[in-house]
Amino acid sequence: MKRLSPLxxxxxxxxxxxxxxxxxLAQEVPPLPTxxxxxPPPTPTPEIWAPVPVDAEGRSVYGLFLxxxxxxxxxxxxxxxxxxxxxxxxxPDVETLQLQAFTSSLIGGDLAxxxxxxxxxxxxxxxxxEAGRLVDAVQHLVRGDAAAAYAVVATRxxxxxxxxxxxYVTPYxxxxxxxxxxxxxxxxxxxxxxxxxxxxxxxxxxxxxxxDHVEAEAEYQRLIASRGGRxxxxxxxxxxxxxxxxxxxxxxxxxxxxxxxxEDPSLQAARARAAGRGRPPALPTLREGAAxxxxxxxxxxxxEGGHEFSAVYLRLAYALVPSxxxxxxxxxxxxxxxxxxxxxxxxxxxxxxAGPYYVEARIQSALSYQEEDRPEDALAELNRAFAASxxxxxxxxxxxxxxxxxxxxEEALALAEGPLLNTADQDFSVRFLRAGLYDALGRLDExxxxxxxxxxxxxxxxxxxxxxxxxxxxSGRRIDQGAELxxxxxxxxxxxxxxxxxxxxxxxxxxxxxQAVGILEGAVDGEPANxxxxxxxxxxxxxxxxxxxxxxxxxxxxxxxxxxxLRTAVEQKLExxxxxxxxxxxxxxx
Length: 590
Description:
Blueprint: H1 11-16, H2 61-73, H3 77-90, H4 95-108, H5 111-117, H6 126-142, H7 146-154, H8 163-176, H9 180-183, H10 194-210, H11 213-225, H12 229-243, H13 247-261, H14 265-275, H15 286-303, H16 307-320, H17 324-336, H18 340-347, H19 356-371, H20 375-388, H21 393-405, H22 409-416, H23 428-440, H24 444-457, H25 462-475, H26 479-492, H27 497-509, H28 513-526, H29 531-543, H30 547-558, H31 564-576
Helix pairs in contact: 2-3, 3-4, 4-5, 5-6, 6-7, 6-8, 7-8, 8-10, 8-15, 10-11, 10-12, 10-15, 11-12, 12-13, 12-14, 13-14, 15-16, 16-17, 17-18, 17-19, 18-19, 19-20, 20-21, 21-22, 22-23, 23-24, 24-25, 25-26, 25-27, 26-27, 27-28, 27-29, 28-29, 29-30, 30-31
């Protein structure tokens, strides 16, 4: 299973619009004051403490720091932050401890503590200093002190690398503080720059909140006319039209966008609401708008690979407006940043009352366990998801795949043959999964039939070509035809070692042993720890008279955890070798 982030909804479009280049957000970070060429060094961690600071339970600052760093490194951001905080309390003047505690608190979600630790000073790296200012501003807004929040950003914008979320959220902070002139400042920058587009969408929303509906609509129309803007901002503009009582115009907009970009469930739901004279979504508050702005910044950071930044911006959005959807996205960002334990801790906070977000959290947690090779834990999470949504074919498919990986083939097949997956319009991937299960259970006729049906749907899929071809070759049913399928797969995906193994084995079965050796050597180079490929190469060496190398390969197979059947076969070959092939014979049956 591959993790799919809910934040990636507009990734291709956004990248095409230039997420990576953001001139509109290139806020100047003020230089050092003139004449200040030397920066005082940070307060170092003392090499020797006399006496060593300890807490009420006798734990030393050294121990607390080491445990905190270890926990944070292993993904336990919350636990790590707690221990680092304890160490920082014992040694409040040591800047290293302050920075470590601040960073861990941000990732772990303790924004209140991170706000109190906000690092300042010329020695603090901008990545932390500007994060601290952003956290300060948002935390003031969370507490309802818009004036204090505005004081953080009014005189100096949030700088790089956090300029984007700072730029996005500042107009909402300004509006909350009463500075509507600053909040509604027209957006500069290219009409097609993705950052400018998001800023314009925020300005349109603020104009509506302010009551300037004419200028708000003008901004929305400029957005819709921009490259890619229709797909990104139709819902926002349509909801504006619905709130203005112009439902027919909203329906026409939704229809035009679907005609241009294709069917979209969100657009379909919005159209149904507008056409049915349903209640339009409420106009967001300034606080909700600020949270949305931070989520937009998180989306872009995630697309660019800045997953930890994305998690921090989402934490800030969640502090403003708690929601299960935002919490889910926090977990996904942490997981994409390889902070798997922190991600699962976040998913665990989404309970069954969260409906579809609970189900998605269980799926994402299962993916996280798979990343750490914990299949039983992944299975438990998928079972929870399926129990909560027993009619969801996607979960049935994932669950069947997980059971198959655990060699619980009969249970997996019950799902794969069941009514959720065995449908008239089933995807080729379901047939591929079912074929694998039939193959594992020795039901080759049914496996062949499923792969043939899958191949009709995807005639150029290298995995289907390879699998069906291998079954034909390995079983001796259609060796030459199977070899042709595998050769096609190798042309489509020449770097795939498993396909190269199949091709080499096909040549072996055709009696073309010298060809088989060259192909299988390349396959072993690509997958050196694959027991089956090493076994095939040993067989090919034996048939061309390279007996010592054959024995070496077979012995290597026994070190690679082969299954019981392969182990028995290899041990037999090490004892007796392979039977002689009559001169001039070939296994090219078809």
